[in-house]
Write a structure and sequence with these properties.
The protein is of the alpha+beta class and 597 residues long. The chain folds into 4 domains: 168 residues, Intergrase catalytic core (hpI Integrase, Chain A), CATH 1.10.443; 170 residues, Beta-Lactamase (2-Layer Sandwich), CATH 3.30.450.40; 143 residues, no CATH class; 82 residues, Arc Repressor Mutant, subunit A, CATH 1.10.10. Helix content is 42%, strand content 22%. The protein has 22 helices and 17 strands. It starts with 6 loop residues before the first helix and ends with a strand.
Length: 597
């Protein structure tokens, strides 16, 4: 779950705004769902009445123009026709404040409400949060960013107001419905079962009551201890209710144009084959669009109403859960929403099971993907600079942005920075260290990536590199995983991706003691003594039990000497976690610029 601010903390933040403009910055992110750079683009001409006549005000959000960096640096050329990325609904009070501010400041139709840089927008939010923290206990304790305010926007609409996720996705400009999953509360089976249960003595609405009793068995199936096949358990659970006569789970088959049935309940596979469900049906659209699809009756469902919901997690679609009604009553919106939640719950469980299997398996399915997309940043950079780039790690900044740590051989930081400046969606280039024949650096990536998509599918990425414009990614899946549907899904999202190889690889289990011994071998006696003294002396506790000077005095060494040994010991410890054997040594041999350890 990704937390936003609760109502009290958000109100305290708005109240703490020192200027009218600061309040608008906070509210445009928290109540209109605007990103940092988008706040600096909107102007009075973008605010208009909705054509429906319902009194709602819409705010058109301009897209980043060519020549404008994704981080917002550099203004778009004035003579370029403006492109609108999306429209979002603005609360009446915020719309009134925008009108009032434009009038008081004498803004023209084209003058931005917030005429500052995106970096200044971030500073305004941080400064306002600091003031709020000093004024009231209701303020958030953690550092608030515009991204946190967008999370507040998402959670307020998805959780507090139960708004259709599709509307929230479009208003906030999220890439897919799957990207909204982190903003929802954890899908705990017991909590969901309790929430959907209906008190028989209550005078509840008939539709709500039916939804609770017809979908509840599916959630209950997820709470069973360690089901060997969660999709089969959920399908069987749903058919226990009189509402559903059939349930099955469809996943993309090899080739991507058909589906295969992974589990059934209330109907046998032969009957489904006679109906040709593998070739057509709403489940095909549910997988492709990552959204529920219903029908009032068709040949594949035996002429009865049915609905298919995707089983997805973080953009990785594992298949579709399909249920067929026992009677002619259509599947209503409440039932569809509940089944969609069940699908997300199932998708999360499938991903978690894959990660668990990887941790405990003695064998894995090793797959290699290759890509030659000219538009991909790493492919373009390696081809243009005639260099080799290795992706050392990626760290998620939020649901749409990640930071990639790269090792570049054959190109210097200045050459690499030039390519970064030319590629849309890549920004904030930072040099970590420079070597004689290359460098280590990090960049900010907006949008999805092949590596991130594989991780969302439950894989462990072992290697990711590019040379001569060709990207190579090696990943491990649990033994027995059908990787063809995964490959088909990746091809749909990323141009030029192909499955190059697949093989079963035995993996020797590494015990905890072996891991500890392997790391301990990296230390010198002095490094181990410094690390041990610091640990047992409470140096790493918070608050600290001993200062560095106190630990150094206890060891009868100077403070600089203690820091020297401790820093090298910490580096050796982290090398054992993050790097393969020998990687650090090879990097140090070629380093010509870097911080002293």
């Amino acid at each position: 779950m990704v937390d936003g601010l609760d109502a009290d903390a958000y109100d305290a933040l708005v109240t703490a705004a020192e200027t009218y403009r600061a309040a608008l910055v906070v509210r445009l992110a928290g109540e209109a769902g605007l990103r940092t750079e988008e706040i600096t683009r909107v102007a009075p001409r973008h605010l208009h009445e909705a054509e429906s006549g319902a009194g709602a005000r819409l705010l058109a959000v301009p897209a980043a123009e060519d020549g404008e960096r994704e981080d917002g640096d550099g203004a778009p050329p004035a003579d370029i026709d403006e492109r609108i990325d999306r429209e979002t609904v603005v609360p009446a009070s915020l719309a009134a404040d925008l009108d009032r501010y434009a009038t008081s400041e004498g803004l023209g139709a084209d003058d931005p409400y917030v005429d500052v840089s995106p970096r200044r927008v971030q500073m305004i939010v941080r400064e306002t949060a600091a003031r709020a923290a000093n004024r009231t206990d209701a303020a958030p304790e953690e550092r608030v960013t515009p991204s946190a305010l967008r999370k507040t926007f998402a959670r307020r609409h998805l959780v507090d107001r139960d708004v259709d996720p599709r509307a929230v996705r479009d208003a906030g400009g999220w890439e897919s419905l799957g990207t909204l999953d982190p903003y929802l509360d954890p899908l705990d089976g017991e909590a969901l079962a309790a929430a959907l249960a209906v008190d028989a003595g209550a005078d509840a609405d008939a539709t709500v009551g039916r939804t609770g009793t017809t979908v509840l068995p599916g959630f209950e199936a997820l709470t069973e201890s360690g089901p060997s096949d969660p999709v089969a358990a959920v399908a069987a659970g749903l058919t226990e209710a009189d509402r559903w006569t059939e349930a099955w789970f469809a996943r993309r088959a090899v080739g991507g144009e058909r589906v295969e049935i992974a589990a059934t309940a209330g109907v046998d596979r032969a009957t489904l084959a006679e109906r040709d469900v593998s070739a057509r049906g709403p489940w095909q659209d549910a997988i492709a669009d990552e959204a529920p699809v219903s029908t009032d009756g068709r040949q594949e469902t035996g002429g009865r109403p049915a609905v298919a919901v995707p089983a997805a997690y973080e953009g990785a679609v594992h298949g579709a859960l399909c249920v067929v009604a026992a009677a002619a009553d259509p599947v209503d919106d409440a039932e569809t929403r509940s089944l969609a939640v069940l699908g997300r719950c199932l998708g999360r469980l499938i991903t978690a099971d894959r990660w668990r299997e990887l941790l405990h398996s003695d064998a894995v399915t090793e797959v290699e993907f290759r890509a030659t997309d000219d538009g991909a940043f790493l492919a373009r950079a390696s081809e243009r600079l005639d260099c080799r780039i290795e992706l050392a790690s990626t760290v998620d900044v939020d649901d749409e942005v990640s930071r990639a740590y790269l090792s570049v051989d054959g190109a210097g930081p200045q050459e690499f920075a030039t390519v970064v400046e030319e590629v849309r969606g890549v920004s904030d280039f930072r040099v970590i260290e420079t070597r004689e024949d290359g460098c280590s650096a990090s960049v900010r990536l907006a949008g999805g990536s092949l590596v991130r998509a594989l991780i969302d599918h439950g894989a462990t990425v072992r290697d990711a590199s590019t040379a001569d414009g060709r990207v190579r990614v090696v990943a491990d899946f649990p033994e027995g995983t059908n990787v063809r549907p995964v490959a088909d899904g990746l091809r749909d999202r990323f141009a030029g991706v192909r499955l190059a190889s697949k093989e079963s690889v035995a993996r020797s289990p590494r015990t905890e003691s072996a891991l500890r011994d392997g790391i301990a071998d990296r230390f010198t006696d002095r490094q181990w003594a410094a690390l041990s003294a610091a640990y047992h002396g409470g140096y790493f506790d918070w608050p600290r039990g001993s200062t560095a000077e106190e630990v150094a005095d206890a060891m009868d060494v100077s403070s600089p000497t203690f820091h020297n040994h401790l820093r090298k010991a910490q580096r050796a410890l982290l090398d054992g976690v993050f790097e393969e054997d020998g990687d650090r040594a090879s990097r140090e041999d070629g380093r010509i610029v870097g911080a002293d350890e």
